[in-house]
Amino acid sequence: MADFMKVAKSKIDASAGELNTISQEIWSHPELNFNEHHAHEVLTDYLEKEGFNVERHFVLDTAFRATFGSDNAGPNICVICEYDALPEIGHACGHNLIAECGVAAGIGIKAALEASGNKYGKVTVLGTPGEEGGGGKKRLIKANAFVGIAVAMMAHPYRYNVPRPIALSMTVLVIKFQGKASHAAAAPWDGNNALDAAVTCYQSISNMRQQMKPACRVHGIFTNGGAAPNIIPEQAELTYYLRAVDENELAMLKKKVEACAEGAAIATECKVEMWTWGSNANVITNSLLVDIYEKYARDLAVHWSEHDLIFGSTDFGNTSYVVPGIHPLFRITGGANIHAREFMATAGAPEAQAPTLIQAKALAMTAIELLQPSGQDTLKKIQKEFKETVSKLPMPDMGD
């Protein structure tokens, strides 16, 4: 096994220049969710050149599946690429590095399989578009893209090294108030102020924060506040992101926020309508799988942060409900946080390359251990932990 791991690491090192080119191509051509056409072409062209069987436009126009090996020989290990950017601030979430890391791990695992005589299993590099608000992985889940996969892994750039981040369940809640328009000076008493309802709702939610659990997050904006100052606003609208540690906690949080909206409607004699979209499940980190990853990351001189860190939300959470998975964070900067222009600059800097390839090696070595005959018992234990954990939780919404 040590020889196969050496082969994987050597392949990644030998390909460092090409991998950096891929990352730079994606970074310098930021594309929003489900419009990642250039990134799709760059990634699939390279994987095809490297000898993978590539299915372009897999399920979704900018998704892909690249495979090597045989299902009959052993388990199918999946490494995930993301490559969509953010509006206005480009790759400020570092998805160019996630893509590079996934491809690098994939070619490393493929090299090890080739060195074994292709007798140990299969590697899948799965390109998942639309992570930033699009829920691309949920659409792939609904199309059974993860059926037959033993484990799924990816690594995300950050400001700390965190092997087991807390990625929260989330949903988007839209709150729309309907009032009655009237002249704001001549006859304000004839109106019902929907903006007052929205302001009251906003303030009520803010007042409720003291009673929220520490990991809960509620953050929102006004998306409609009326048409003109001399018209009593007949419509007003808020959009909130609600987040909690799991689906059960999220349901309780949502109920409390909805009560704030209903109370505001009663207080202002308005009507309220609410709906949700864009939900992501919390990430279930498989402890046995991440133990293996941590072992090899330590061997590569990765030092873990002591932070018990909450890391937003991701559609990888939904993936972790259908297949055992890990989603470690790796440090590329000690300064800016994700979704900041400074992080965008760092994601495209030469200094980001070494930590990205270290993560690729750690993921590849994890996969190689599981692909060995000796890894089959470990895989069974990973699957057992996964099934026991998921059986105790409500299945998250896999809709768009």
Automatic annotation (TrEMBL):
* Membrane-spanning residues: none
GO MF annotations, alphabetized = dipeptidase activity
Question: Pfam families this protein is in?
Answer: M20_dimer, Peptidase_M20
Q: Peptidase M20 dimerisation domain: which residues?
A: 174-265
Entry's family note: Belongs to the peptidase M20A family.
Tell me what this protein is called: Peptidase M20 domain-containing protein 2
- Annotated source species: Patiria miniata
